[in-house]
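Hi R.,

Here's the chain you asked about this morning:
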Amino acid sequence: MTYCVGLRLNKGLVFMSDTRTNAGVDNISTFKKMVIFEKPGERVITIMTAGNLATTQSVISLLEERTKVPAERNPSIFEVPTMFQVAKLVGDTLKEVIKSNADEGQRAESTFNATIIVGGQIDGVSPRLFLIYPEGNFVEASEDTPFFQVGETKYGRPILVRAYDPDMSFEQAVKLLMVSFDSTLKANLSVGMPLDLHVYEAGSLKKGAQVRIDVQDEYFQMISSGWGEALKQALEGLPDFSFDTQ
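And the predicted structure, written out as C-alpha cells:
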C-alpha cells in the first residue's frame, strides 16, 4: 500500500507521497512513487502512483520511453497540448498496461490495478490536477474537491477536510500534509518513510522545491510530537461528558 496526496491551491500545486511497498510482512521495500516531467518554460507535470508496483513502473517507463522515441500513434507527454490531454494519455497508458498484463497473466484484472494522481501546468493555461482510475477514466480537482488522495487514504483525510484552505501558503500546506501523513503512518504500517515532496508555483513552468523527508527530519519529528500534544490539549479543553444529563 502507499499514500499520496495532491493539493490544489490558489498559489499552485503541492504533492506528497510515501515510498513504501509491501507484498507481505516479510517483503517490504522502498520505491519512489513520484515522477516529474519537465520542459522548463513550457510545462511541468507531476505524477504519483499507488497500486500494483509492476503496473505503475510499466506506466512510468512507457511514458518516459515515448518522450525519447515519439510516435504519431502514441504521442509523448511533452507533445499533447493540454493537461486534459495529459490526463487522457496517462489514463490510456494505464489501461493499456493493465489489459496487457491481464491478457498475458492472471485472469483477474484487479490484480494489476493502480490509481494515479497527475497534476501540473502547460504554458498558456492554469494548473490542473486529476485523479486517474484503473479503467483509464479520470476526474479533475475543483473548488468542491480541491485535493486527491490515493492508497491508504482514510487515516489522513479528516485533517485535510477540516483544515484545507485554498488561500493557504505553501508552508502551511506542507505542514497540513505532514500532519495528514503522520496520522497515516501511525495508523498503518503499510505506509512508510521517507516521504517525497514537490511544490509547484503557478506560472513558474519549472520544478519547484523538492524535498525528501526521512525519519530523522527534525521538522517532521516536531510536527509529529506537536500534533499529538495539541490533540491531547484540545481534548482536555472540551467539556467532560456527564451521565447526569442523559
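The chain has one domain: 3-236.

Let me know if you need anything else.
M.
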